[in-house]
Fold this sequence. Notes:
- By secondary structure, this protein is an alpha/beta fold.
- The chain folds into two domains: about 10-225, Spore Coat Polysaccharide Biosynthesis Protein SpsA, Chain A (Alpha-Beta Complex), CATH 3.90.550; about 235-290.
- It has eleven helices and nine strands.
- Strands 1, 2, 3, 4, 5, 6, 7, 8 and 9 form a nine-stranded mixed beta sheet that branches.
- Helix 1 (about 20-30) packs parallel to helix 2.
- It is extended.
- It starts with 8 loop residues before the first strand and ends with a helix.
Amino acid sequence: MADANAPVSIVIRVRNEGRLLRKTLAALNAQDGPPLEVIVVDNESTDDSSEVAREAGAIVLTLPRSEFTYGKALNVGISAATSDFVVLLSAHSLPVGPNFIRLAVKPFENPAIAAVRCVHISNRQEVEQWANQSTLTWPAELTDVVARGPVACGCAIRRSVWAQLPFNEDIKAVEDKFWAAEALKLGYLITSSPAIYLYMQEFSFLGYIRKLNKDRLCFYQHTGRSFAGHPTTRDLWVDLFYTLPRRALRGMVQDLLLAFAVTSVPLQAWYLKLQSRRGQSLSRSHSVNS
Length: 290
């Protein structure tokens, strides 16, 4: 059973993200229930990531780049954890609020829970539904596990379940989704938590496409299925001749209105001052007449 004082281990994967890691570690240090330990798995960073982690009191484990997979990095970190409740983060996953850890592990009060998905603050649908707990059971569609299962950059898992079911070290992506599906098959549950985190890393346009493609390619290689559709020809034509021009026009109008509002601020202030003086004059005139 988990309670408010249950010890919690944190496992963070990092490579060359010292600046963001410093912010994440500071957020963990500000928790109302600080973690028992923070374990940083460093993938041979060439920046100050390891130094930042050690200065914050974290345990630093080095994983050579030649051996790296996301699954192996998780296994290395979790194997060093001493608590049965492990919160998984990336260096760029910033816990929001001092109760992040407490909220993340609270669902473990149910001994059937194997993992907890936290709320990604940029996922509007998740944020809007934070108060509605979502629980996965087996049988479940694999595409549903992808959509609602734990994300290794912001989730919590039960270490005793991991001991039975380590992460697959041979796949290049979506290792968290395949792990969740196997945990469900064993009879465990996957649920959600209102613990919120901010993904601080910003992808370039092409970088974002490459990441999505890598996830989908890996999923297809292991299942022969695709977990997301692709735009139809109609969608592309609508984007090209309707959506994009409409957004451009809307943006132009907003910019023009904002420019007018900013440049006319002195005029607006003068007008309000004039109105105030007129109001005062009318008030004095009314007082004299009465």
